């Protein structure tokens, strides 16, 4: 479709494609797998991440940052070296925010008894699922966004600490990518918007096998889509910050279908740049549980659906150096203004247009 100014309506075109549905599925999937990695997904052996134990096996059960941590503490460690834990100020980047402890010694039975064997990763997963959601919910006052960036995690003693008698576990909050790898974050979770979001210009990688989005990458690498803006919905639906009622998705769409084109044009450097890129414009929305948890931000992004997933993009769309599935995009031809949506011809007063089209007479010779 072309408007009266001769510009192709990319927004009307994109709404017929399930780009937003695919993004929503990835975001939810990221949350599901994130809660597992601290106790299961990232372990090659019980209690290890790439060969390193979570707890320091050479440290007494009573003297490690893990065993001394309390609710509100933040712990960090070098990537892939979780044994080298340290407590840091929560304003600095960290890997884990402690929400509370679970003292398994207080539970009856032989599973946590003095002579109990060190639990398997699967058993620790079951412990996390049973106890940690309640601990984290109480810690955040019931305001954990179930579809947000953060998920519930569990830290537990190393095998040596367990043998030394340590039975206390730590429930907390963590940030991870779609593959389950833990990522550092700064600030207390309760003090920030938990919405899934990335800074303007961020390119989100693509899994070549599934054509689904992964984690942020350099835009020179293959990616699924590029974020053009982060939009704070509170500007429209909760301007006083007093906790306004949830705006239904239809209302969010009505607001974003005018907001996202404007901010995307600014990001790309002009109103015609989106058409020239041949990409589609789309945005994320918030579900009611996310809104009630305090999340207010969504993202506008550009990409192209392809074979049940996303087309593979390479390059920064704002810089004009873009390849789509290995090819330079070919913009559609610009039709003359008004050709497809003509203005009605004015008629004299009292004359109504004939709604019935009369076909031209069949061919035949004239007199």
From TrEMBL:
Keyword Metal-binding on entry: no
Alphabetized InterPro entries for the sequence: Septum_form
Domain Septum formation-related: 71-300
Residue ranges of the TM segments: 21-43
Keywords attached to this entry: Membrane, Transmembrane, Transmembrane helix
Compositional bias segments (type: Pro residues): 343-358
Pfam families: Septum_form
Entry protein name: Septum formation-related domain-containing protein
